[in-house]
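Typical record is below.
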Amino acid sequence: MDPQDLIPALTIFNKEKARLNYFDLNEAQKELLETLSSGHNRILVVKARQLGISTLVRAWHFSQWLGASQPLKLGVVCHTREAAENLHNTDKTFLANLPRALQPLMDKSTAKTIRSKSSGAELKAFTAGAQGGTRSYVFSMAHLSEFPFYENPEETLATILAAVGDGQIVIESSPNMAGDLFNRLVVDALAGKNEWKVVFFPWTIHSVYTSTDPTGKLTEEEKALKKSGLTDGQISWRRKQIGTLGMDKFIREYPRTIEEAFRSGKTTSYFWGDAAEEIKGVNLGTREDRKYKGDRNDSDRFIIGVDVSAGVGGDYSALSVIHIDTMQPVFHKLSNVITPRNWAAEILTVAQEYNNAKVIVEGNSYGGAVIEALKEWGYKALYKTGDGKPFTTTGASRIRLFENMKQIIEDRIIVQMDRDLLDQIKTCIWSNGRPDHPDGSHDDLLFSTMLAYWGIKGKEPWTEARDNPIDKWKLLKRTKAATAPLPWKPTGYDYGKKKPW
């Protein structure tokens, strides 16, 4: 069946009506379908948000898969696992709602793969950068969705080009930042310097982006936009969106021209995505101790992630307590004036308050002094790797730490968090081949929180404390001796605070 006839007859989920509908193509989708059908094998789609471009490309792949007489390999690559699953579910919706007479016999249908028994053709979903992914797969056609938000778009594109050969590659995305690979490909394509064809869809092409609210007095900019062809309804809608998103984010998400598309932004957000936007920021103040509301029981289990600084101003030491069963943060503490050994005493206080919580301390630099102090005082619920060592940050383990946190966010496990912690997550950027915080900002709360979640999700075994009354008595004696007042007071440490032992 001709794709031009098949695709409008497919069934999709209509978000606005919250039900299944036939695929009623909008203007942008119709134009892209013409381009896909015209024989171009290298297509760059620059688009405003929510135009249904990803869905149209999935429908195009599905039509090729359904009509295949050979074992075609059609793959979609996304920046997150969740996005890959969502687009693959679109393929499954197309298949499940076909008339029975058109449904092929299936050889395989999994969370990532659909394979026809008669032709051997496959529809398969991948996550960019996942181990054992695109590098080991030979594509007939590839769909790269939200391409500039991949961790390593250069490496992914090189792999896809080698795997596809002369087959069709469609890269589609809203813009991210000026100067990134997506932007460079588009600029070179428009200048005729590469083989890619650029298709641009501004927000003004979509009929739903309009408002019936009165515009009132127009600004000079809005008057110019009206002269260029925008309606009063579009100007009103634009004004409301800018009021919500701000000008820079509006231009990035809803460009009107291809020049606007890459005007804003200099860095790539590492935790980019709707999942991070859904986390509720809680104002716990700016004090050192930050406790979330909620009750806890003696049977509850907790883990504490600890980041350590020198305690002489500048960088902060931070600890984050996570409820192991609910996976929610329950307490944070941070200070940049407490020395490592005295920070160990603070950790001990918090750990005992939270039912002798397990503690994972980054062993690098000043963290080693904290671990030694906790061992000296007899605290045994300390995280150890398989070879009996504490967690240490290397280039490889740092990436795994961030990746684990990204997955926690994308799986929508965290409901709410301290506003400062959420800010550190949202401002974390991908820079020089690794996740990092911008100059002049901090990531101490983020790092202590990531360590705690690593301790929950990581595969390394724990060293468990023995329930022994003699051990408890020794711990009591040691901690009392270790935290007795000295002839001087270390900066930032309050000896008047009531201790739980």
In short: The chain has three domains: 3-201, 220-266, 274-482. The chain has a mean pLDDT of 85. The two ends are 77 Å apart (CA to CA). The CA atoms of residues 15 and 501 lie 56 Å apart.
